[in-house]
Design a protein that fits this description.
alpha/beta, two-stranded parallel sheet, four-stranded mixed beta sheet
Length: 232
């Protein structure tokens, strides 16, 4: 497996990106949405293969623009760095759409209002359904990923009977299963990097204290760090 270039915005290949954009644009045409501004992380991941702090602007006509706040080292076609959402207006310039689609089903009201104010002359439309329908149609590459994921899941589930021990709690079993997934993956370096980053995240101790405590009890935090360093 080729190492991931963390400076590249696009972590899916160009052909796959074009297929996904075509899916989105085909769904934009019917409800009359000439431009879409994506801010939901799941949808940004669908378009680029990564999550970042920013927005993806998809017009029916014209190139896709990636408005990025962080991380600041991302590179690629269509990348425009901004400090705040209001900076989007100057980049769009005179090509203000008649209507703008936002993911109103998932956006907080304050965020939706702020983004709509960037396009004061544009009609506001809900584009949540556009993204749901586009993502529902899987590309061949996505189907292949699902197939490979299923094979890996079969491998992991076949080992559960061997890692379960009498007296184990549900949490202890869950942590053991997670460890098996990590150490048996063909992309172990990437997975360890991601997992260790999560271990260091400020949000993880808040939301997952039971799992963190199990990692500490079993000394897996130190082992996780050692594996991460070993695979650098």
């Amino acid at each position: 497996m080729q190492p991931v270039d963390q400076h590249k915005l696009m972590l899916i290949d160009r052909d796959e990106f074009n297929r996904r954009i075509d899916h989105i644009k085909s769904q934009m045409a019917e409800p009359g949405i000439p431009a879409l501004l994506i801010s939901d992380n799941a949808n940004k991941y669908y378009v680029t293969g990564r999550v970042f702090d920013g927005y993806v602007y998809i017009p029916l006509e014209g190139p896709v623009i990636f408005f990025i706040r962080r991380p600041v080292e991302l590179e690629g076609d269509g990348v425009v760095y901004i400090r705040k959402p209001e900076d989007i207006a100057s980049s769009i310039g005179l090509n203000v759409p008649e209507a703008i689609g936002l993911e109103l089903d998932v956006l907080p009201y304050s965020t939706a209002t702020r983004l709509k104010n960037i396009f004061p002359e544009s009609e506001l439309k809900n584009a949540s359904g556009v993204m749901r329908r586009a993502r529902a149609v899987k590309t061949p590459a996505q189907i292949d990923m699902i197939r490979h994921s299923g094979i890996k899941h079969v491998h992991v589930y076949s080992r559960i009977q061997h890692i379960f021990q009498s007296g184990m709690t549900d949490m202890e079993l869950q942590v053991e299963i997670e460890r098996v997934v990590l150490v048996s993956s063909e992309s172990v370096a990437t997975l360890w990097s991601f997992t260790w980053a999560m271990c260091l995240s400020a949000t993880m101790p808040t939301h997952l204290p039971p799992m963190i405590s199990q990692w500490e009890v079993r000394d897996w935090t130190r082992r996780c760090q050692s594996e991460h360093v070993a695979h650098q």
